[in-house]
DNA sequence: ATCATGGTTCGAATATAGTTGAACCTTCCC
DNA sequence: GGGAAGGTTCAACTATATTCGAACCATGAT
């Protein structure tokens, strides 16, 4: 068997700007994206700033990012591997992700 | 008298990325920004696609954009002159506005 | 097979955002 | 001054998003 229990990901050409902007407009989600900027990360290793965050909440954050097409969420062993869909976002919205990742982090 | 009844605008250095992204994550607000990309516009001439929109709704859309620091809203005669705070946004988040304005408009 | 680990999904509660009419404020014009 | 035009603010309502426990599902290890 090749296919695993994968979650749906929008195709590159179906990404919607307002959905991407919305996904990134939440500080917690933006922080996740910043972490993924350094490379793929296992979900269990993600969001370690707030270890009290319930896993359902964490899962929901990932869902919003995934459904907007910003991140990929693949099965890896017992867990999940998260990664930025950098090329896809760049292809559809050139320069967007770069400008956001380069922006000052604080407020 | 020099000062008029002006609305508060955040200073350039106080713009918050997530607030800007949020303001632009709504299709109606994004459309307004696209219109202002062509140059300043009197509020009465804005949002003419939907002439049925109540003025309170329109005013609220502008408020979100203004408080995020994306647009300027100045008194002009009996009405208001809206303009894009292009340089301010560019100064704080280089490349962001350009990439958004260049992005495909539809979904 | 069974169990533990790591995530997703569901549902209900809460919080935040959008919508709108009504009241009010300014400015221009007479 | 008085009226009309153009906007803002307020308050109440509706709609959408977030939060999180509980139940469930898949995988790897024993």
From TrEMBL, chains A, B:
Top-level taxon in the UniProt lineage: Bacteria
SUPFAM superfamilies linked: Winged helix' DNA-binding domain (SSF46785)
InterPro entries given in the database record: ArsR-like_HTH, HTH_ArsR_DNA-bd_dom, WH-like_DNA-bd_sf, WH_DNA-bd_sf
Residue stretches making up the HTH arsR-type domain: 9-104
GO molecular function terms listed in the Swiss-Prot or TrEMBL record: DNA-binding transcription factor activity
Record protein name field: Helix-turn-helix domain-containing protein
Organism this protein belongs to: Pseudooceanicola spongiae
């Amino acid at each position: 068997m090749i296919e695993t229990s994968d979650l749906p990901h929008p195709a590159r050409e179906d990404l919607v700007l307002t959905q991407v902007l919305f996904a990134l407009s939440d500080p917690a989600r933006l922080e996740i994206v910043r972490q993924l900027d350094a490379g793929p990360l296992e979900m269990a290793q993600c969001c370690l700033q707030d270890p009290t965050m319930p896993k359902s909440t964490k899962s929901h954050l990932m869902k919003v990012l995934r459904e907007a097409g910003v991140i990929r969420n693949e099965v890896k062993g017992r867990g999940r591997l998260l990664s930025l869909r950098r090329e896809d976002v760049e292809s559809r919205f050139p320069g967007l992700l770069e400008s956001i990742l380069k922006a000052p982090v604080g407020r």
